[in-house]
Amino acid sequence: MASKQVNPTRMELSRQKKKLATATKGHKLLKDKRDELMRQFLELVRENMALRRRVEEGIQNANKNFVVARAAMSEQALHTALMAPKQEVYLDIGSKNVMSVDIPVLEYRTRTADENDIYSYGFAFTSSDLDGAVKSLADILPDMLRLAETEKACQLMASEIEKTRRRVNALEHVIIPEAQANIKYITMKLDENERSTQIRLMKVKDMMLEDAHHYKEKQAAYAAEEA
Amino acid sequence: MYKIAVVGAYDSIYGFAALGMDTFPVSDPQKGEETLHRLAEGEYAVIYVTEALAAQIPGAIERYRERELPAVIQIPGVSGNTGAGVAGVKKSVEQAVGSDILFGDQ
Q1: pLDDT profile of chain B (106 residues), mean per 10
Q2: Sign (positive/negative) of CA torsion A69, A70, A73, A76?
Q3: 2.40.30.40, 3.90.550.10, 1.10.10.10, 1.10.287.3240: CATH of A32-160
Q4: Which chain A residues are closer than 8 Å to B65 by Cβ?
Q5: Model's pTM, two decimal places?
């Protein structure tokens, strides 16, 4: 099933053999990579799902609290209270290499160490529900960042797994069979050429012997004598 | 040094400002897409987008899916959980495994 024509020469044969060896080695390596990536991905994606459920539930609760807080305060007062936040969150981005996939590692720092700085307002003119709402949101912040990290890692790994799987399949079902078929074709062709050369030589030898010794004439004479 | 952004309808995201994240309230999808692209080019490593907004700009969300940074993460808004975030995780599984063998029944 050689799809394209190859020259049946020894040089081409050794080239195809080299190609086959490389492809086989690459196939094995890529398969290992795919398996290991898959193992790590499955672990990570389970964590991702758990985190997502936790964060979604947390945000849902926080949202409920905010709605309650909003009901107890005027809109203007609420806007004013949250207008100038005291706290700031910064991220330091590291990088982790998992089976040649670069995965960002997030580390967060807050501007001030005081955890009460999430309340950016005086307590005199706001309802206590707002404090609760802000607190409930602050509690899920670490999980939210962890979610961002794992979800990104999962997305990156998923696309890498997809690519690797395609490569493995291409090697397994196209490149390797093609090289094998080419090698077989060239070997057969070379063998066939060799046989035909051999036969030609034998024929030539026969003819030369005939020329030198005149076997056929002698045989004819002998047959006539017998008769 | 990177920062965190939250994009979505004002009602869904104003609380995050108290934690020190930068909030970007947007009302229409067009504006949301522009904001997202602007933030992604800037100094934001994590951008939380409400599911309601993300549902209107799937192309823009998809664009950042396979980039290393930023991480665009969907969060439920004040109007409730649409399940888009969970669907995103399932999509990753499908992409990697070929079919959703982990959370298919959930």
Answers
A1: 89 84 89 89 90 89 86 87 85 86 71
A2: positive
A3: 1.10.287.3240
A4: 155, 159
A5: 0.83
